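From the thread on structure requests for the teaching lab: each student submitted one protein with a one-line request. Submission from student K.M.:

"Model EVE domain-containing protein from Novosphingobium anseongense, tokens only."
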Amino acid sequence: MTKINDAGTEAPRYWLLKSEPDAYGWNDLVAEGEGTWDGVRNHRAANNLRAMKQGDKAFFYHSNIGLEIVGIVTISQAGLTDPSDPEGKWAAVKVKPDRKLKRPVSLKEIKADPALADMELVRLSRLSVAELTPQEWDYVLGMAGG
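Reply posted by the TA:
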């Protein structure tokens, strides 16, 4: 469902993208300037990638090592076919680094906070591309120091 903001335009949506920092971390994305988010082979996560629009925001989450949200990215191109998929059935997007968080927010902190109990990161812990509500987005930003 498309949400319309007070100005009558489509409201941005918020996401969380997981990556193993030893394979592709925040610093790798910053060095590239723009990266392709590909290699996702889970149907729900791929559907989340397909739902993204240019200008949406996402948290960059370090999985396996660190287990923390470290930065914010902007979806720079949406609706792409995953270039690593020879059959062309999986989705991808391009992302640009926006900013590093003032303070990383750990999975442990998120799980310990009852206000975030319904967050997809908590409920569907293996999902590599998750959607956040605007309230969850703002709350996590507050935890990171704004």
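TA comment: The mean pLDDT is 93. Strands lie at 14-19, 35-37, 57-62, 68-81, 91-106, 129-132.
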